[in-house]
Write a structure and sequence with these properties.
Strand 1 and strand 2 form a beta hairpin. The chain has one helix and five strands; from the N terminus they run ββαβββ. A five-stranded mixed sheet has the order 2-1-5-3-4, with no helix packed on it. It is mostly beta strands. The protein has one domain: Beta-grasp domain (Ubiquitin-like (UB roll), Roll).
């Protein structure tokens, strides 16, 4: 299954992956990341049950601190 993640097409290692599985597979710290699928924010408490689908466009957003 192919999705677009941060403007880059990627092939997922299995069908029916959740957001949590994707973040683990990509070694991304989920505590510091907001995840958006097709323009809709996915709440952190829904990462385990939110499934990705063929053609989804996903973006990760990280918090930046500074001044």
């Amino acid at each position: 299954m192919t999705i677009t993640l941060d403007n880059t097409p990627i092939v997922l290692p299995k069908e029916d992956m959740t957001v949590a599985e994707l973040l683990e597979w990509r070694h991304m710290a989920s505590k510091n990341i907001a995840f958006v699928i097709n323009g809709k924010l996915v709440r952190r408490e829904n990462y385990e049950r939110t499934r990705l689908h063929e053609g989804d466009c996903a973006m990760t957003v990280t918090a930046a601190f500074g001044g």
